[in-house]
Amino acid sequence: MAAGAGRGARRVVVGKAWEIPEGGRKLIVPFRGRAGIGVFNVGGTLYALRNICPHNLGPLCTGHVSGRFVASAPPSRAGATLTMDRDGEILRCPWHNWAFDITDGSCLGDPRLRVKTYPVSIEGDDVVVAYAED
Amino acid sequence: MPITGAAPIAAPGWTAHKETGVRIVDCDVHHSFESPEQLLPYLSKFYQEHLYDQGVHFAGGGYPNTPLRKTRNDIKDPGLKRRDFNFTLEFTQRELLDPWNIDVALLTGSPSDIYGAAGLPDPDYGAALCRAFNDYTIEHWLERDERVVHAILVAPTDPAQAVAEINRLAGRKDTVAVHVPLSTAMPLGNRFYHPIWEACAEHGLPVVSHIGGGGATGNTMTPVGYPTYYMETRMARPAAASAQAASLICEGVFEKFPTLQFAMIEVQQLWAVSVMWHLDFDWKAIRDQTPWLKRLPSEYFRDHIRVGTQPMHEPARPEQLPWMLDMLHADETLIFCSDFPHFDQNDPVTVLPGISDHMRRRIFADNALEMLRMPDA
Fold it and tell me: I want to staple B310 with a disulfide (CB 3.0 to 4.6 A). Which of B122, B150, B337, B360 is the partner?
């Protein structure tokens, strides 16, 4: 059983593993409400996020996936480098462009915010998402 | 990588209940053409040749470096190469008007596609493009949905032609405002522009002024030059709005045209508090410079200037938002603007959490309906 899916937990098969190849995603709508969830495959590991941005309720999981942008110094300094790391792990909401870490749901721009995450696992060919019973 | 299964989320309103019992007047609904060639039927032969030969002469219109190429990713059509989606009335009905229960949508054009016409060095081509865009809007947008009205676009670079365009279209029921983009070569209170304001006042049309246009290229100019990054550009906008509001008040535009109202869109809000407070402070000391002003500058502001809600400030302490609305006299001055379909749009459900019913009615409907003189909408 997936981590966090303890007492009172429900488990739902949301698809087949082949539907979500590395770098891919699947949206499951509805899922515990009209907004649904997104299941992302980052480097072979699946993550499930609620499709509601904690900023202004935008459809977060339909957003652009890329990385985190890093600068060693302002570009005016000699030798400064502008790079991107964690490519494929960062999701940006289509409303207002706020960035979230797919692997733990945290918001890169505001440490107080976090998108709800669900334990997800592969059992046989099935992708299984767990959630706690209310 | 295709987004498996991403396509059909029912509507952008899916996360929250629709507003009921409150009309929603959205004073910033962007619209455009799919390509400038759609303006050809509305241009004279002379300017058709311009468009074929030289294009539209402007790049950016004040939005050269906007994230997500300006528009919401969740409504982009991945099958299109040239644009993010087909910009049509049907698109706007499906993605905005129907799911969000918008009762009145004021079309404001598209900054990068057409606002540059307002600041073209060639004022004749600018006026021709504005006229063509208005005619395109009438045929493709206004005559097919009663909820949709427009602010007719004019180029302030030649006031005589702007006045002629206002006179040409003012009689239409769906002409409810005149759009002069906010970035200009001279401050808007300058007497050069007064013929335009006079025509607006005569026809009972407010001026709606969305940031952009003016320089026709690059970012919004600041008092110290052009900014580099988009975040800086955002901060240029309150400065531009402050300068325009102060100019309109100090030059006596509202003494000269006492029924004229002027809305400033996509310029944020808190600047308006500072303009009202500090103009009053200065007027008490140095009013001799502008003795034609008979009232406190803030009184002119509250009667004549309106401020769009988008992009709304999100204070670090949420309890400060109602304080700001109070300081702003938001029940008189603030008008709801979604900025649809841009990435930084504000939806009517989440934009102003926890405000009173009175404030909600004023901001979402009554302030705008009074300004647009649409008592029956």
Answer: B337
